[in-house]
Design brief:
about 65% strand, single chain, mainly beta, two-stranded antiparallel ribbon, about 5% helix, 24-stranded antiparallel β-barrel
Length: about 550
């Protein structure tokens, strides 16, 4: 009898247990000592009971070396969680987002080696229209920067450990959602601490949604002779969505004045103690491109000092076409002027008492202006077997103010016009082909004015950089894919040791299941910026090499 009870108990127990196992293997061997070997595995177990559930997950990594980041051998992350209808408790590595991230938005972009998760404890209580989250833990940030010695685009040389403690309260009443947050941080190896407080409001209505968020940040550190230094900053983010028949209009506004610095210190992530925290990741409102040339030309957000607007209109044209129009404009909240001694001062403009573009973005080059207009038409033919995307993009970005005095001006600029296109043709039940063509003309260099005479000096060997990307993919039975790609330019600015301005590649992919695939790649990939949601990193070019990617899920 005891044997049957034992069997019945464990049979019932295992019937309520769910398993998940994800494995990712990546190997690369290219010229110029570009090699990597990575194995990443995530194991998960869930025990479901009528009134609650338990979850446990463990992430392992063996990378020697990784493509980007530090060598890892062992446990990367773990999480133990208990959840019921009103209460949850998590121990280990957690990722939380409060509201839309103005105060806390923890993310992991493994392809950029950017991880803002924390290891500690998170407790959440939810009852009716109330949700309370309390957390505490340690977060470790790592980056690559040219401000420190030993710079390598693939290996971080700047490390920041900090303890975080905070709470977030969300209330709902009569259709209005309100949130109140408080976050405290302490850097482990310095005497720097920050206090961030804020509130948010969201109101859905019949044909849209309005979101409004505020934050205030106070930073302190012990300076020379133990003198306490303080710095205060603030931010606001507004988002509105309106639906007009089948069309939608999205507008975003942001104004971040968290740590305003002159051009000589603006990008100093090492010494600017009051800068926006990486765990914040405030909304950027920049359009996220999927085309290759446009993605590489993305804007890197400045969460310390930026005011910006974005408008996005999308809707159908007829029964089988969709039009998308996106416009973004941003700048710093101050313009900058240097005197004869090279000392920077905010522009003494009179429109708002010295803060000319404090409320709205400026087009003056001393304010780091950015403008982008993107238009896309996509749709199907009448037979439904051809899908296409045709676009146009204009971008103008002033990302360095080098000099701006009464006698001379110098700004580093990037201007580009891009025509991206893609066509996917379904030939029959087994075969389909996809063709992609992108054309781009860019102007990158220095606009200079001396004694009233203007000139332009290109960063490249040519005044205009002409980029082309072409790819052809054949798909068979939703299992096999063969892609041949070519990218070329007349002048390259990458940090590669190779002089070739052409990158050719071929890849073969076999989809074992819907969530499992093997890809074998041979060829070259052009280097440049890789950006995700305003987080950017320079990626080294991969020349004449082999890559193997294998990922599989066991459920």
């Amino acid at each position: 009898m005891n044997k049957y009870i034992f069997i019945l108990f464990f049979s019932s127990l295992f019937a309520q247990i769910e398993y998940s196992n994800y494995l990712n293997f990546r190997y690369g061997n290219g010229a110029d000592d570009y090699t990597y070997d990575e194995i990443y595995s995530n194991l998960g177990i869930t025990l479901n009971r009528p009134e609650h559930r338990f979850e446990a997950s463990l992430s392992l990594e063996l990378s020697n070396p990784p493509e980007i980041g530090l060598k890892e051998e062992g446990v990367r992350e773990f999480l133990l969680g208990y959840y019921n209808e009103n209460f949850s408790l998590e121990l280990g590595d957690f990722y939380k987002t409060w509201g839309r991230g103005l105060i806390l938005n923890q993310v992991m972009y493994q392809h950029l080696d950017f991880d803002t998760g924390a290891r500690g404890i998170s407790i959440e209580y939810q009852k009716d229209d109330l949700t309370l989250n309390v957390l505490g833990g340690e977060s470790g940030i790592r980056k690559s920067t040219t401000l420190l010695g030993g710079y390598n685009p693939r290996v971080p040389n700047y490390f920041l450990d900090q303890n975080i403690y905070g709470s977030d309260l969300t209330l709902s009443s009569s259709g209005l959602i309100m949130g109140f947050s408080l976050l405290l941080t302490e850097q482990s190896d310095t005497d720097i601490s920050s206090t961030i407080g804020g509130m948010r409001f969201e109101k859905p209505y019949k044909k849209g949604d309005l979101f409004l968020s505020f934050m205030h940040k106070n930073s302190e550190r012990n300076g020379a002779e133990n003198n306490l230094e303080t710095d205060k900053g603030n931010g606001i983010y507004v988002s509105n969505v309106n639906y007009i028949d089948d069309w939608s209009l999205t507008s975003n506004y942001r104004r971040y004045r968290i740590d305003i610095k002159d051009p000589s210190e603006r990008d100093n992530i090492v010494n600017n103690y009051a800068q926006a925290l990486d765990i914040q990741r405030s909304p950027t409102a920049y359009y996220q491109h999927s085309f290759k040339l446009l993605s590489r030309n993305s804007k890197q957000a400045n969460l310390n000092d930026e005011v910006g607007l974005e408008l996005e209109l999308t809707g159908p044209i007829g029964d089988d076409k969709t039009l998308l129009v996106s416009y973004s404009k941003s700048s710093s909240t101050k313009g900058w002027h240097s005197n004869e001694f090279g000392i920077w001062n905010a522009e003494p403009l009179t429109t708002t008492g010295g803060n000319s573009n404090s409320l709205f973005p400026s087009s003056d080059k001393d304010s780091y202006p950015f403008d982008e207009l993107f238009i896309e038409l996509n749709g199907y033919n009448k037979s439904g077997n051809v899908f296409y995307r045709i676009g146009f993009d204009y971008l103008s970005d002033t990302f360095a103010v080098l000099a701006n005095s009464d006698v001379s001006e110098s700004f580093e600029v990037n201007k580009a016009i891009t025509f991206p296109s893609m066509v996917n043709i379904t030939l029959n039940d087994l075969w389909s082909i996809e063709m992609q063509l992108e054309l781009q003309r860019a102007k990158k260099g220095f606009e200079t004015t001396n004694d009233g005479k203007s000139s332009f000096t290109s960063l490249l060997s040519e005044k205009y950089q002409k980029n082309t990307f072409v790819s052809l993919t054949a798909n068979y039975s939703s299992k096999w894919s063969l892609t041949i790609a070519n990218e070329s330019t007349n002048s390259d600015e990458s940090l590669s040791n190779f002089e070739s301005n052409t990158w050719n590649s071929m890849s073969l992919t076999y989809r074992i299941k819907s969530d499992s695939a093997l890809e074998v790649f041979y060829g070259s990939i052009r280097g440049g910026l890789d950006c995700t949601n305003g987080v950017c990193r320079y990626i080294q070019s991969f020349e004449d090499g082999l890559r193997i990617d294998y990922n599989v899920s066991f459920d």
